[in-house]
Backbone:
């Protein structure tokens, strides 16, 4: 193919990423304006703060999913691992009397183990990630049901349990900002540094961009893959525990839609389903868009069941738009 | 001259977003002639081919068929006029049969609108018969994925015969993925098509093929038409001069061996892997370029991949700077100071959707890290800037996506990445495959320069002129074994090639 042809095409491609980011930002603004017109409460500071606070679990899971997608894999189990984290934490406290923070640490370890299993089966045993994580999802579902019998753990009595998700560090318009929000912000800062400034982060791009090239450049592919899945497990479990702390209960089924919503957020933010491409800041924006959509649909009174139709359609739309662009 | 022209394109201009890639070019094809289209990477050959065959539409200019102006807006239009292309990247449904692939997208249907399998197989058999002896090896019921590249090409050609009688068939770098025997079969087929009066357009980088096959040559440079010649009246040097617009001494000055040091950079002992290669022993000194010659399948590529740890080996030891190193993964090889620019550079070396900057730095992260072990993006830019200049990669800048470069420039990027990796021993496998003459000279000069800096170079190649022109010492492999080792002092092609064939 002619060089000049290609160069020009690429000029557009280069701008394309920036352009898409701008389009996403505009879409976010338009969406917020729409909900603002439809509901007088939507744009009130209290709702906007609530929006941000409620985005914490999905925000963490979106980091997990973006990292997996970046290496050309994806993690179906994130939602179930979130549920697992919340359940293990509350179960240890309530049924086994483990101190809150020790139980919290064990919850993180559970996520870590789940991620390690996913990573090792994918990297070393060459089981396709979506299969191994799909299977893991079922396994954890079983574990959760065995522990809970389908019931939730109510945690109203446990004050230190609620600290992460409910303690008001300060308030805006009457809505408290809990420590969980700072965990989210910190997570994104670390994610940004990881991808932009560390060799490991760059390795992940190369692994997803061209695995063979990564191997020939001496990059440890298996280590990279195990790393993203382990990170995914820990973040998902953390997300589930922060959700539990905020809601004051351990719910057996919280994460049904997290996997899909996290993919939606990542892809809207420009992460490639085929690997090799992601952008931490835009992942955050994409994730916020999903959160805004859900919150807005609530505010204008769309029943929960119908919301699924809308978010499902949005996922397909987002991936379609991205595929279109690559023509 | 004009009386005997099937297809003529005149004043063809094509721009992509304001950038002219074809500027007022022309071509005239005659029945029963092979017309070679030459030029460096990015000269516009492929673009013209795509305009004639309906993959692109022209901005201005005219295409005439039998003297009448025709409009070709898409591939189907072109097929109606009997214009076909055998593309470089062949389009094959791997799980379908040969017959299904011939009629891909357009299977014969019965009156209910369902696929008429009987008619399809019958017509496929007819198409096969049209190719006479060339079609004999292929069974129309075979699954495409089980067949080799040669067979795939045959299927592409059969597609041309599936509809109207083909009048023009264009071949875009058809031999780039074929073995020697497949090339031979292809040439026989092309000669046969020529005898039947088909006008053939042939795009290639291989000078030898141009002279072997073509009747006429048209040369393009930077999107402009340079001129046409009868092949019989043109020499290799003429052609190179037309293509690059100046004379060129491909291999540089006569070699000066004073840079070769006594110290052995790399020594390999008793390397074996199954049938691929057995008991290979070799060494290369600092400042030396060791040429490894052999036919396709002689085991050179397998050997260097085994040495680099990219593929497993059965046995063998590697000594770098006199010390033994265990290499079972490219990571270990790189750590030991060995680099390998693989044969399939695009597939095995590039992140197509990442920037050139990232593609260049991935072999040498230590060079762009700061004291804290974090990537220094400023350093990386400077690094990439330097890397882009080694072979003068044609791009808009280091932020450009690698997938947007032409094939030749992609090759250059992968080579640059390894040149920049600062390896003590650099192995290059077919370093000039798919790149144009101008860039070839740059590759040779760069290898020479690295050697002068004290690096040891192993150059694997199946191009004898290149082996003889560049190496200080030559090793020949045949059927997995080293058959000869010689100093490259006034060797002729015959001296070397005789060792490449088994007795």
Residues:
């Amino acid at each position: 193919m002619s060089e000049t042809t290609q160069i020009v095409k690429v000029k557009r491609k280069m701008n394309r990423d920036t352009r898409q980011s701008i389009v996403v930002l505009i879409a976010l603004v338009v969406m917020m304006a729409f909900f603002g017109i439809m509901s007088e409460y939507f744009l009130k500071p209290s709702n906007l703060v609530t929006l941000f606070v409620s985005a914490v679990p999905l925000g963490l899971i979106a980091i997990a999913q973006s990292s997996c997608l970046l290496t050309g894999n994806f993690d179906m189990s994130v939602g179930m691992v979130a549920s697992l984290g919340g359940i293990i934490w509350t179960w240890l406290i309530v049924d086994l009397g483990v101190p809150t923070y020790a139980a919290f640490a064990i919850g993180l370890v559970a996520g870590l183990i789940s991620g390690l299993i996913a990573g090792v089966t994918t990297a070393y045993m060459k089981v396709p990630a979506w299969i191994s994580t799909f299977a893991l999802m079922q396994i954890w579902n079983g574990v959760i049901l065995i522990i809970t019998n389908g019931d939730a753990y109510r945690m109203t009595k446990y004050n230190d349990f609620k600290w992460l998700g409910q303690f008001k560090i300060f308030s805006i318009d009457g809505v408290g900002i809990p420590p969980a929000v700072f965990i989210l912000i910190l997570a994104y800062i670390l994610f940004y540094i990881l991808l932009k400034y560390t060799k490991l982060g760059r390795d992940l791009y190369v692994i997803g961009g061209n695995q063979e090239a990564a191997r020939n450049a001496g990059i440890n592919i298996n280590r990279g893959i195990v790393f993203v899945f382990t990170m995914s497990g820990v973040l998902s479990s953390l997300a589930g525990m922060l959700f539990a702390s905020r809601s004051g209960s351990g719910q057996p089924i919280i994460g049904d839609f997290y996997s899909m919503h996290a993919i939606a957020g990542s892809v809207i933010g420009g992460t490639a389903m085929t690997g090799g491409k992601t952008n931490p800041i835009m992942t955050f924006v994409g994730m916020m868009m999903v959160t805004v959509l859900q919150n807005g649909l609530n505010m204008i009174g769309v029943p929960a069941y119908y919301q699924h139709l809308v978010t499902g359609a949005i996922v397909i739309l987002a991936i379609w738009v991205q595929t279109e662009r690559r023509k | 001259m004009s009386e005997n022209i099937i297809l003529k394109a005149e004043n063809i201009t094509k721009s992509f977003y304001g950038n002219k890639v074809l500027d007022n070019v022309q071509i005239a094809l005659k029945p029963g002639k092979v017309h070679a289209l030459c030029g460096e990477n990015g000269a516009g050959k492929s673009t013209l081919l795509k305009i004639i065959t309906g993959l692109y539409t022209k901005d201005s200019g005219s295409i005439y068929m039998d003297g009448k102006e025709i409009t070709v807006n898409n591939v189907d239009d072109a097929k109606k006029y009997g214009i076909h292309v055998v593309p470089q990247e062949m389009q094959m449904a791997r799980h379908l049969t040969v017959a299904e692939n011939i009629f891909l997208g357009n299977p014969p249907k019965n009156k209910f609108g369902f696929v008429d399998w009987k008619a399809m197989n019958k017509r496929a058999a007819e198409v096969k018969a049209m190719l006479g002896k060339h079609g004999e090896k292929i069974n129309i019921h075979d699954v495409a994925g089980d067949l080799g590249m040669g067979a795939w090409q045959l299927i592409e050609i059969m597609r041309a015969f599936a509809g109207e009688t083909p009048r023009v068939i264009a071949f875009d770098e058809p031999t780039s993925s074929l073995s020697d025997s497949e090339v031979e079969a292809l040439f026989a087929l092309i000669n046969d098509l020529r005898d039947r009066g088909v006008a053939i357009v042939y795009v290639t980088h291989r000078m030898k093929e141009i002279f072997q096959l073509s009747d006429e040559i048209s040369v393009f440079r930077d999107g402009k038409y340079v001129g046409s010649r009868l092949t019989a009246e043109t020499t290799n040097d003429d052609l190179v001069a037309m293509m690059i617009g100046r004379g060129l001494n491909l291999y540089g000055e006569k070699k000066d061996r004073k840079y070769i040091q006594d110290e052995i950079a790399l020594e390999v002992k008793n390397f074996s892997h199954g049938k691929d290669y057995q008991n290979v022993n070799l060494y290369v000194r600092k400042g030396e370029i060791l040429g490894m010659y052999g036919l396709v399948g002689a085991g050179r590529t397998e050997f260097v991949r085994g040495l680099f740890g990219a593929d497993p080996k059965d046995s063998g030891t590697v000594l770098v700077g006199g010390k033994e190193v265990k290499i079972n993964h490219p990571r270990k090889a790189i750590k030991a100071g060995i680099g390998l620019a693989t044969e399939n550079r695009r597939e095995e070396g590039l992140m197509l959707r990442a920037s050139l900057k990232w593609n260049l730095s991935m072999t040498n992260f230590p060079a762009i890290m700061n004291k804290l072990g974090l990537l220094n993006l400023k350093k990386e830019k400077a690094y990439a800037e330097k890397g882009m200049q080694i072979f003068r990669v044609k791009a808009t800048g280091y932020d450009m996506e690698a997938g947007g470069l032409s094939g030749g420039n992609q090759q250059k990027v992968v080579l640059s990445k390894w040149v920049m990796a600062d390896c003590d021993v650099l192995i290059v496998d077919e370093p000039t495959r798919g790149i144009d003459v101008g860039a070839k000279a740059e590759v040779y000069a760069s290898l020479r320069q690295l050697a002068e800096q004290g690096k040891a170079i192993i150059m694997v190649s199946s191009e004898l002129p290149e082996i003889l022109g560049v190496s200080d010492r030559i090793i020949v492999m045949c059927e997995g074994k080293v058959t000869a080792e010689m100093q490259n002092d006034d060797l002729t092609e015959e001296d070397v090639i005789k060792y490449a064939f088994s007795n």
About this structure: The CA atoms of residues 65 and 488 of chain B lie 53 Å apart.
